[in-house]
Amino acid sequence: MQRYSERALLTDLYEVTMLQAYYLRRMNQTAVFELFVRRLPDGRNFLVAAGLAQLIDYLESLRFGEDDLAWLRECGRFDPGFIASLNDFRFTGDLDAVPEGTVMFADEPVLRIRAPLREAQFIESRLVNLIHYQTVVASKAARCVIAAQGRTLVDFGLRRAHGAEAGLLSARASYLAGFDSTATALAAPLFGIPVAGTMAHSFVQAHASEADAYAAFAQAFPDNATLLIDTYDTIAAARMVVPLAHWLWEEERTRIKAVRIDSGDLGALASAVRGILDAGGCPDIGIFASGNLDEFAIAALVAQGAPIDGFGVGTRMNTSSDAPYLDCAYKLVEYDHRPLRKRSAGKAFWPGAKQVLRRARSDGGLQEDVLALADEDQPGDGLLQPVMRAGKPLAAGPALSGIRARVRAQIAALPPALRLLKATQPYPVRVSEKLQRLAGEVDAAQERQAAMDQARWEQDAE
Amino acid sequence: MQRYSERALLTDLYEVTMLQAYYLRRMNQTAVFELFVRRLPDGRNFLVAAGLAQLIDYLESLRFGEDDLAWLRECGRFDPGFIASLNDFRFTGDLDAVPEGTVMFADEPVLRIRAPLREAQFIESRLVNLIHYQTVVASKAARCVIAAQGRTLVDFGLRRAHGAEAGLLSARASYLAGFDSTATALAAPLFGIPVAGTMAHSFVQAHASEADAYAAFAQAFPDNATLLIDTYDTIAAARMVVPLAHWLWEEERTRIKAVRIDSGDLGALASAVRGILDAGGCPDIGIFASGNLDEFAIAALVAQGAPIDGFGVGTRMNTSSDAPYLDCAYKLVEYDHRPLRKRSAGKAFWPGAKQVLRRARSDGGLQEDVLALADEDQPGDGLLQPVMRAGKPLAAGPALSGIRARVRAQIAALPPALRLLKATQPYPVRVSEKLQRLAGEVDAAQERQAAMDQARWEQDAE
């Protein structure tokens, strides 16, 4: 049996019903779909695109397994010829996309699929599912990185992430956005991400005394122990760490790496604990903070000068709690060489296969983006690049280290106001004249068609 | 290779580091942990417990695969004897839990693990991950069910759910909370949940005309077609559906089931479309609405009498967008027969193995819950029931139909104010005198121990 996350039926049923309707009408000309975000969440100035590596895996491995076909036969609403046709169903199309770690804005396509209609349509649900979530997390995590101003950041969020895949992929997305490591162990063998781990309150509780717990942990992980000091009384625990640290050094030549504070007024406690450790001759023991942190809490602690060396950031980053979803859409922009768009209230989009041209100033800072037709000759760097052709990746994907470097460089190149944690004047994204003209033509053609339709049906009805 | 979602390393690294420290100290007496929610999200009056079936699967199948052990060996920080001991690591403990679909309140344990310390500790991360997410979704979905007052509800949220498992498990959690079906196809073969699906805007766009698209779909799914009518102009599309419906009936004896509106002022459009369909002799064509819906939007549409027969509810339910996480914790309450708790600021909890006793009035309505020690003799129905003993489930889990019935009955038994969509006077959860006394004793014992510790370390330091 396939992994459930790789089953073709991990999709919306309507992808299958539409496929059957296309099959019965023999519709399968070339379609172009694009994925974009309609508007940024409140308070946000940019997105960080992520998830492309997992999308490529999905597109390469997409096939209906015997389990999937058996269910389609059993459920009684599908045509046998149609079901048989799914035996050979593969993704054979082209994918163009912005590289992972690219900073993006509203209305800009992050990827473009050009494929036979049925393939391009069917992949919608899982494609959005994969790109949306990692983009949500990378965009949130990048804000934490900005707020932390160089302090260590560790992803702590597996337990309250929304399921297994969210736990794993948020470790990846936060790392590529600039986090230093994750607590999620499986992210190390699967993605090569550094992992970090300390102890839980239960570890302190289970020992006969807090000092016993600290000694046991330090002896199990010489030179690498971070001790959790807020189980009972943070200040009293810090006072106990001082003689323990000296004893461990003198008896066993072992150092304590850090202490962790997970509750209370983190800034005030960190200052008091720093004072106790320094006065006790332990200036090398670091202070790590965790507990309900996000970019706002981190920025506040940094602004007040709290002596905190690193932050464990969990739930609020992994669920992107203030903006847990993006208003994104995967839309048909061309079918059989005919550019298209819909006009639904508040949900119109730009027709035709497009490109984003990014223009920089002479100092390397970003100046503006232009949303244009893919075949327009416009100055600027085209963000969408060829990734797959005829269903095959053109090259191995970039290493996570390269993606991290891209995020760093792109955020550094943003106009400074866009790096603030509150919404500011949006980054300028201009729509080319040719694209604006095309949109008007597409709407006019659709209106003519609708009028003809209406007339025909009214005539039929008479 | 195991599925990633079943790998033992899908856990926080600290679960492994603590295990090594326990191994080296030979600590493995019986521990009792409980999972509870510290406080309800803003605006919420109750939770619906969910996820137990997936937790049982996890506990039964937990083992370190060769891949997991290989990584532990490679990463260099673990003791070879410890790693070898993980070869035989299994969950051999007891699980008591409230049945899925039980209505719960703050501070009440939803489950209790009693097992050798290492097992009880190690399972923490994935246990919380599994119970937390489904409880988040079931609690949100139950509010949508209350708001919909009997109208059909369909889960539409796979694409913006946080990953594959979230998509699948939110289909399950929303169905058990009372949704009628899901659009996520794989939920049918995996969980036996009814699935529903219509068409996307792209389907309308790809056809030469809107009427062609509708005819193609109706012919592919006779008597079962729901037509999406907001791609260009909702009112014009509804006017076209009337003659099309008559034509389909006269030519092919096929009925159109419903139309779907996905944008704009859903209430006003539904009224207008209802008028057009009724005036055109199509009173049997239903109206289905979708687009940014949650319990508040549904309640507003129902209150204004919008003629909507069913709602597709996606992103805001699957991400629980107004409360994407619960402040839940899995805490050690007893070790080696010693009751325990921590006292961290704002994060204290009740010590000892506990039970929740639920008391009903003579009319069946809920009166109050009592949080008591598990061995107290208190009136009321004990919510926590034996589920696993010595690592094995005691019985097959209940069918989803039974869980749905439980949710319905429990929500019907709530004091009416608690069924409102805004926060109200909290449901009374009393803490037994014996439990309050025990908490005081545990704190006093810990303080004595801390004082002894402090004195000893200060002496050592001199």
UniProtKB/TrEMBL annotation, chains A, B:
It is an enzyme of class 6 (ligase). Transiently phosphorylated on a His residue during the reaction cycle. Phosphorylation strongly increases the affinity for substrates and increases the rate of nicotinate D-ribonucleotide production. Dephosphorylation regenerates the low-affinity form of the enzyme, leading to product release. Pfam families: NAPRTase (PF04095), NAPRTase_C (PF17956), NAPRTase_N (PF17767). Signal peptide: none annotated. Residues 383-438 form the Nicotinate phosphoribosyltransferase C-terminal domain. Pathway: Cofactor biosynthesis; NAD(+) biosynthesis; nicotinate D-ribonucleotide from nicotinate: step 1/1. Residues 9-131 form the Nicotinate phosphoribosyltransferase N-terminal domain. It catalyses: 5-phospho-alpha-D-ribose 1-diphosphate + nicotinate + ATP + H2O = nicotinate beta-D-ribonucleotide + ADP + phosphate + diphosphate. SUPFAM superfamilies: Nicotinate/Quinolinate PRTase C-terminal domain-like, Nicotinate/Quinolinate PRTase N-terminal domain-like. Its EC number is 6.3.4.21. The keyword NAD does not apply. Gene3D superfamilies: Aldolase class I, nicotinate phosphoribosyltransferase. InterPro entries: Aldolase_TIM, N/Namide_PRibTrfase, NAPRTase_C, NAPRTase_N, Nic_PRibTrfase-Fam, Nic_PRibTrfase_pncB, Nicotinate_pribotase-like_C. One of its GO terms (molecular function) is glycosyltransferase activity. Residues 153-321 form the Nicotinate/nicotinamide phosphoribosyltransferase domain. Keywords: Glycosyltransferase, Ligase, Phosphoprotein, Pyridine nucleotide biosynthesis, Transferase. It comes from the Bacteria. Belongs to the NAPRTase family. Catalyzes the first step in the biosynthesis of NAD from nicotinic acid, the ATP-dependent synthesis of beta-nicotinate D-ribonucleotide from nicotinate and 5-phospho-D-ribose 1-phosphate. This is Nicotinate phosphoribosyltransferase.
